[in-house]
Amino acid sequence: MRVLYLRQLLSTFLVSTFGLYLVFLFSNVYFFNYTPAGEPDNFAPVIEIIGGDIITVAVGTDYEDPGVDAYDIGGDMELVVDGSVDPKTVGEYEVKYTAKDSSNNITEAIRKVHVIQPAGTIYLTFDDGPSEHTGRLLDVLKKYGVKVTFFVTGRGDDNYFKREFEEGHTVALHTNTHNYAYVYSSVDNYFADLNTISNRVKAKTGEDSKLIRFPGGSSNLVSRRYDGRSRIMTRLVNEVTKRGYTYFDWNVDSNDAGGAKTADEVFNNVTSRLVLGGNSVVLQHDVKGFSVDAVERIIQYGIEHNFIFKKLDASSFTAHHGVNN
Q1: pLDDT lower than 50: segments of the chain
Q2: In total, how many domains does the chain have?
Q3: Do 125 and 267 reside in the same domain of the chain?
Q4: How far is the C-alpha of 284 from the C-alpha of 271, rounded, in Å?
Q5: Residue 14 — φ and ψ, nearest 5°?
Q6: Which domain holds residue 199?
Q7: pTM to 2 decimal places
């Protein structure tokens, strides 16, 4: 029995010995297993925990275990789940998954579930992407089982829309071009641009997104330069609502598009402004590498201080600003 761990996908490989071969793909690591014919199967099943090996939920909310993906070379495998979670009682729980194949190879994996009295709810949101930093951001989020909201544009790789969606995040709209001069010159231009990014997202996710964030937020003043004194933001917030959209602003600014230039500054700005006992809609940008660098520490801080993390949906706290134009 030989198991090779490959860091890149081999487009071709040569097989010179008769036997059974299987390739597994997990998180960009490829597992290549070779069992020569007639030899015993010593390759244990593989378990991948869905949704992270640590989950934090608020007491009193519903909890459904996300489960696991389990694989075995022979396909003859039994999966046993032990443990339960009482979401009505604060505490720490464990769920153990045991996979056993017909050759008695065994693999175990454990998920820890923390049921807490939350200090508040954190909605991490990321504007302007996708970018070259989005992939590693998604890796961090997957590590902790945290779901967030991406307000996307058309300036990056559309394939990230698919990954964001498939990994359970909210893919929301931020306009296609993020060009203030164009989108705020008229209502028609705004919706033309919005429809473009909406179609691009749907092409990758199969769903129509009805969650949006205006470039600069609903309170922006930059729109005054381009709207011919037509108070376009007042018109747009009314029109998007009529057309079935829900728009979001934020109440915790990381300032990564302003004065903050380091991950430490982003971390301090976010954690010092979290709303105890309430909702914190955090503004970050996944086009800023230093801001992405701060995310793991922000998540760790939130977990340590009994915050829960959620993605936005149509019923979420909108953190609306006052419209100034």
Answers
A1: 1-34
A2: 2
A3: yes
A4: 13
A5: -95, 135
A6: 120-309
A7: 0.79
